[in-house]
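Memo to structure team: turn this sequence into structure tokens by end of day. - J.P.
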Amino acid sequence: MLKEIGAGLALGILAGLFALGFNVYPFLLLIGLFFLLTRVADIKGNKQFVPVSNSKANTRISFEDIGGQNTAKRELLEALDFLKVPEKMSSLGIRPLKGILLVGPPGTGKTLLAKAAAYYTDSLFLSAAGSEFIEMYAGVGAQRIRQLFNQARNSGKKSNKKSAIIFIDEIDILGAKRGSGSSSHLEHEQTLNQLLVEMDGLSFNDEIKILLIGATNRADLLDNALLRPGRFDRIVQVELPDQEGRLQILQLHTRNKPLADDVCLENIARETFGFSGAHLESLANEAAIIALREKKKFLENRHFSEAIDKVIMGEKIDRRPDKEEFWRIAVHETGHAVVSECIRSCSVSTITIIPRGKAMGYIRQTPSKDSYISTREDIEEQIAILLGGAISEEEILGSRSTGSSGDFQQAVELAKKIISAGMSSLGIVSVADLPSGVLYDSLKEILNAQEQRVRSIIRKYRSMIENVARYLLEKEKISGAYLRNILKEHEQRSRNEVC
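Reply from structure team:
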């Protein structure tokens, strides 16, 4: 009604101005543009928000289908009991949980855990992304939040469900701290406030019991009001899997794939430290693609080895350096590998000079175990291995190259880690507050010590490095086992010469 009155008044004023001889066309253009924007906003605001709904295709996932997350599954199962056995919870006077927050790196299975939770509790499953609630039009996000919770209740009744699980992925977009940068926008605050109101309104006595599950890899960005007890009551850490967890995930993703006798999933799990569940799924899939490309009936160990390289570094590239550069790259990578084997026995899995991604060559290492903390000795060993390529070039070819710049950057960061952890001669200090000259001297001391250590190794094995580099230049890829055999033969000849 108000819009019609306003429109009539505006037309009357324009008619009066036109009668007085004013040019009203610019005003008409502005009014038309204003009307168009208002109409678009109305359409946006009234458009029904439709999240991904419950279906057999996306929710028939059980906790048995998820590997490597035993701790997260245990915590989640305990929290889901109020949906599974509400009478038991009520008899003990337990307040039902309103929200569960899954926190962890990308690809660790947060969405799968939410789907498994819905399947386990026989709940309606509704899924949405945080970005779907953020709009430039005031009130649209809050309206979509209301629609989401109303749809959970209405669809739950239609489906004869007693409970519903609402899953919001990347909830940090929706629930970011208020008053921080662009997050201070009124529309964002209205949307977040509506989510808080809806969560406060959840009750154990509701006909359809609703549980909100959020997922994020940036919990530090979330507003404190969202994290307090009574809203997100439980925060479940979904971390990268350890070696045993990686083995479980590999077993799940290879159960429908024919494996050759030489495939050892335990070894593959050991070589994939830092891989998420998504990485491991991609690894198994890429190995199958490589086997298909070669028209093989079984997936062999070399297919998995090739797939690991592809997941880490990317696909092979056509760019090929000339013979002189190839020789330098071979010497560089062999230097890395020899230093690694001399410092950490059986640590090298593969040496290659096949270009992948931005790398012209690399060595893949196999950690003896998953390590989550490091001593000074551990970090110094990493620095020494990084310096092995450049020192090998310098000792054998007489100069270094720009191919070592990335190694040097990593080495400097590791040296800074020694200082910041209080493991240097400076003791416990704040790196940010150190005078630049003092920091430089300390870094130089750490790096120079490892440079001398590496130089002595390279000089000792110089002839062997040249031989291995020539073989690598011919084959383009060799195994760590081959390198260890050459090292063993070299050591045996050295002992015989001494005798």
